Amino acid sequence: MENHILRIECADEKGLVHKITGVLYRKGLNIVENGEFVDPETRCFFMRTEVSGKADAATVLKELKKCLPKDALAQITKNRKKDIVIFATKEPHCVGDLLMRHAYGELHANILAVISNHGALKSLAGQFKIPYYQVSSENKARQAHEAVILKLTARYKPEYIVLAKYMRVLSEEFVTRYKNRIVNIHHSFLPAFVGANPYQQAAERGVKIIGATAHFVSEELDQGPIIAQDVVPVDHSHSASDMAQAGRDVEKIVLAKALRLAFEDRIFVCGNKTVIFD
Asked: Which of 12, 71, 217, 264 has the fewest Cβ atoms within 10 angstroms?
């Protein structure tokens, strides 16, 4: 029997948890995991509840709406693997890690395709029998290039798009179409070391930590809601090459964590920040 995930977002009021869990009990559902949070500034209530039992989503939602505030957002979905498409350029570490996790059932997702503006990773995707599409951006206007990618992506109807070191900026139109469904990973030097060779800049400055940030893509470059971050220590003995390797390692881990949270429906986006039930 498949588990279901209930997600609720609404204005806070007294007795909400009691009302919600009462409905679940009366419908014969057993709570196997639960998380709640009230934002102290907005007084917005968030709740993620995983239940087991035979659930008729429409009936449960109908009963919940009777006891929730008027503008409440409530959703019940099966706890299942999400369909995703990966965007990549040339760097193999994140793509390779995701393909490996997918092959061994660790990703909680179905990788439908890899789309890239280069052919460098075609053989890597081929080893895992994942369709690979090279859409070159050479001698193409940004709008024309993106139109091809958008059409190709739409064919797969992905629930999420993963930018696994995809080095092109997506347009506002593209981002809006997949709002809060595009996950990006980058090093956490931004905005300290922008431009070319950030690890060389970091080595010259003698940084003491190397980090990575995974976030949802928004219309403003690298300013979307943050999902996950982590750092690893480095010191004066680390060359720029050593730091780059450390950066690749932490990027893989942070991206995988962020995707697990997204694919398990553990993230609520509230303004430009996230509420996460891990």
From this structure: 71
Give the domains, in start order, of the chain with CATH numbers. Answer: 4-78 (3.30.70.260), 82-276 (3.40.50.170)
What's the predicted TM-score (pTM) here?
0.93
What is the widest separation between alpha-carbon atoms in the chain?
Answer: 63
Burial of 206 (0-12, 13-18, 19+ CB in 10 A): exposed
Which three-class secondary structure state does DSSP give residue 133?
A: strand
How far apart CA 178 and CA 163 sit, in angstroms, is 13
Distance between CA atoms of residues 34 and 57, nearest Å = 18
Is residue 37 within 8 Å of 275, Cβ to Cβ?
yes
Tokens of 251: 């990027």
Bridge-based pairing of strands 82-88 and 109-116 is: parallel
How many Å is the Cα radius of gyration of the chain? 21
Residues serving a catalytic function are 222
Q: How far apart are CA 153 and CA 148, in angstroms?
A: 9
SS3 assignment, position 111: strand
For strands 4-11 and 44-52, give the pairing: antiparallel
Could you read off the pLDDT of 253-266 as tens digits, one per residue?
Answer: 999 999 999 999 99
- 55-110 tens-digit pLDDT: 789 999 999 999 999 999 999 999 999 999 999 999 999 999 999 999 999 999 99
Asked whether the bond before 92 is cis by omega within 30 degrees of 0, the reply is no
